Amino acid sequence: MIMERDNLIPIQEFCAHYQVPETFISSLNKYELIEIITTENTQCISVTQIKNIEKLIRFHFELDINLEGIHAVSNLLDKVESLQSEIKKLHNKIDFYENK
Amino acid sequence: MSYIDYYKILGVPKNASEKDIKKAYRKLARQYHPDLNPNDKEAEKRFKEINEAHEVLSHPENRKKYDEYGKDWKHAEEFEKTKQQQYQGSRQQQYQGNFGESDFSDFFESMFGGGSRQHSRTMFRGQDFNAELQLDLKDVFTTHKSTLTVNNKNIRITIPAGVENGQIIKIKGHGGKGVNNGPNGDLYIKFNIVNNTNFKRDKENLYTTVNLDLYKALLGGDVMVDTFDGKVKLKVKPETQNGTQVKLKGKGFPIYRKEGHFGDLYVTYNIKTPTNLTEKEKNLFTELSKLR
User: ∠ CA(B29), CA(B38), CA(B184), 5° rounding?
Assistant: First the structure.
């Protein structure tokens, strides 16, 4: 059941769907890697988080990275992505001045 | 198409156990997995090789076939016919999210066909597609619609005015089809914007240079200036210095996702001093110089 109005998916359903234990999702929340929303006494996740959670599932179940590792990796990936975006902006600036 | 040594790719001997293969795969996957190497094409390529090697060596049937026919892959088809229906191997969660048909080598396709990796029980989003779109700066001055062909499908998209060079926009659900009823992936379009105009762009602001003759710079006057969407008349103040910059508010580039809002146009004056002076002019300038 997807709560269309709020775009929320109950954790129980998500876990059954992806065949992951609910404790895994709780742990991700504990490490502040995802946000759990409680509505009508049901713990849910937002659909906007699915892509990220899929990635975290791959880290843990495919790459065998423990939760502490996932926490560290996620922080570093955020930095990598922010640096890549900064580089892109700087490239645009360089193009601007070089072609002046 | 040439033979691929999957054992070499995973760095394991030919008699490696399933456990050793899994261990080697995980070690390499942690190094090259696309989730851990965003926007790194080399890592992605390397990971595809690793994934393919694992796909073959981690399934006993595939491994047996590869060991028997690997170097002689051209004769594998006959083997495939007899074994095809027997293959029922279940698959653990694998990185499939961003992989499509072309992500396995011709060698793999020749030996195992496209069907050997359809056994996952887990639902996954379809692969995300990446496309690049080259546009002229003029094209992104106004919001317009454009039709793209991605994987033989025509997709009509709206390109908002003011999109940046290198900017990536996501078209939700237009990527690959989901696996086992999973949601479709997304389409990411990167814009490469070529600037063939006389304007330099920095986000929403535009910059241009206008030549002024010495007399207009000294005495002031009007000058017609090209803006991105037409000409405007600009008043030049008397005694304008070379390199003076004036701002034309709202004459810059559209601000992304802010309909009707524009940046500014910065005009820099480049004062041209006269050349090939006549004797009379030289004398007049000499006289002028004596007054200062």
Answer: 90
What does the pLDDT read at residue B151? 74
Domains in chain A: ranges and CATH: 8-98 (1.10.1660.10)
State pLDDT tens for residues B230-285: 999 999 999 999 999 999 999 999 999 888 899 999 999 999 999 999 999 999 99
The per-residue pLDDT for B62 is: 85
What's the complex ipTM? 0.75
Q: Which two tokens stand for residue A69?
A: 């590792």
Burial class (CB in 10 A: 0-12, 13-18, 19+), B196: exposed
| B30/A contact by beta carbon, under 8 A | yes
- Output B242 or B95, whichever has higher pLDDT: B242
Phi then psi dihedrals of residue B203, to 5 deg: 55, -115
Give the CA angle between residues B134, B137, B140 to the nearest 5°: 85
Q: Helices B60-69 and B76-83 sit at what angle, rounded to 10 degrees? A: 150
A74: nearest CA partner in chain B:
B36
User: For the domain B129-194, what is the CATH superfamily, name and number?
Assistant: Urease metallochaperone UreE, N-terminal domain (2.60.260.20)
Taking the CA atoms of chain B, what radius of gyration do you get in angstroms?
A: 32
Q: Return residues 70-109 of B near A (CB < 8 Å).
A: 92-95, 97
Nearest to B175 by CA among B129, B244, B120: B129
Cβ partners under 8 Å of residue B172, min gap 6: B186
The answer to whether the CB atoms of B202 and A96 lie below 8 A apart is yes
